[in-house]
Amino acid sequence: xxxxxxxxxxxxxxxxxxxxxxxxxxxxxxxxxxxxxxxxxxxxxxxxxxxxxxxxxxxxxxxxxxxxxxxxxxxxxxxxxxxxxxxxxxxxxxxxxxxxxxxxxxxxxxxxxxxxxxxxxxxxxxxxxxxxxx
Length: 134
Prior knowledge:
By secondary structure, this protein is mainly alpha-helical. The chain is built from seven helices and two strands, in the order βααααβααα. Strands 1-2 form a two-stranded parallel ribbon. The two termini are 23 Å apart. The model has no long low-confidence stretch (mean pLDDT 94).
């Protein structure tokens, strides 16, 4: 159809960078304080996603964030991730994902492993979900 898809928050509001765990304290006013997927329990349970991503950085000389973004980029040529950042070094890191081409075997490995991971916590609160009209 000639249209693209912009993947919003492809790093899971920072979770897939590997810099957030169940002990992370978010600043006052940070939306992650109210989102079900960012409760202490959900972050501990969802660590399985990070464990999966962390299998690749060393062998690919990349960061978990770059692997996550490379995976999104590998899905379809018309899907573009838009990771947000306020730090120049993170922008540089994120841009590095464009140079990583995951092999068919790596993509299959990620797909097979992630199919067995149950993500804990909804993306948004019930009230936020209702406001979408979906």
